[in-house]
Amino acid sequence: MLTLALSKGRILEETLPTLQAIGLQPAGDIDRLLRVPSRHPEVQHLIIRPTDVPTYVEYGAADFGIVGKDILMEHGSGSLYEPLDLGIAQCRLMVAGLPGTKPLRHRRLRVATKYPEITRRYFAQQGKQVEIIKLYGSMELAPLVELADVIVDLVATGKTLKANGLVVLEHIADVSSRLVVNKAAMKTKHAALRYWLDRFREATETAHA
Ligand code: AMP
Q1: How far is the CA of 92 from the centre of ligand 1 (A)?
Q2: Considering only CA atoms, which residue is closest to atom 14 of ligand 1?
């Protein structure tokens, strides 16, 4: 039996057509069940929060998983194999703020984000020490009420920024969903994992042909 950890929410919705194409669609209520059989007797799914997917896969509670590059960058991806870019849930990780936001001289830049590690690394690479304010959602509000000078957040269409009067200031990284694999399972369950990796690769190539 193989266990695949799926990221609940937007990524799961965008993953369903691929799962369908390779015969791994969930065979159960994905809105309520946390562990669901798939249409294939030898693969089951875990439906979990995206931020938890790297942990389940790293510890081997799941053999492989599907998760956004943003979460992998924040988690640190060295403990997992990342063999395939699925090309879904594409967006960009950006620094955004009110138009005309300038580097501040009198105090450290305050950055609101749910990605403290990525943010710290990004500004440190530029030789900047910033004050990071960890939020769990609705980052766009922070500059409007002067909780922060700028935000680090995902931008897809840009509509959320625009609706809140914010603009992109800097591009940090392109983001899409990745297939990740537990390192030990890649050895002990090699043939089975190889088979499914090949199916995912084919489906991804077909979808983007
Ligand atoms: P948009 O208005 O299309 O630019 O989408 C921006 C909002 O959707 C922000 O609140 C983002 O955090 C969120 N978002 C955009 N793309 C993704 C994604 N691939 N995964 C999770 N959240 C996303």
Answers
A1: 9
A2: 154
Q: CB–CB of 171/92 below 8 Å?
A: yes
How far is ligand 1, taken at its centre, from the CA of residue 190, in Å?
Answer: 35
Report the C-alpha gap between 186 and 183 in whole angstroms. Answer: 5
How would you write the pLDDT of the chain (209 residues) with one tens digit per residue? 999 999 999 999 999 999 999 999 999 999 999 999 999 999 999 999 999 999 999 999 999 999 999 999 999 978 999 999 999 999 999 999 999 887 666 679 999 999 999 999 999 999 999 999 999 999 999 999 999 999 999 999 999 999 999 999 999 999 999 999 999 999 999 999 999 999 999 999 998 88
Report residue 102 as tokens.
Answer: 């300038």
Query: Per-residue DSSP letters for 151-205?
Result: EEEEESSSHHHHHTT-EEEEEEEEE-EEEEEEHHHHHHTHHHHHHHHHHHHHHHH
pTM value?
0.95
Domains of the chain as residue ranges with CATH: 2-89+176-207 (3.40.190.10), 91-174 (3.40.190.10)
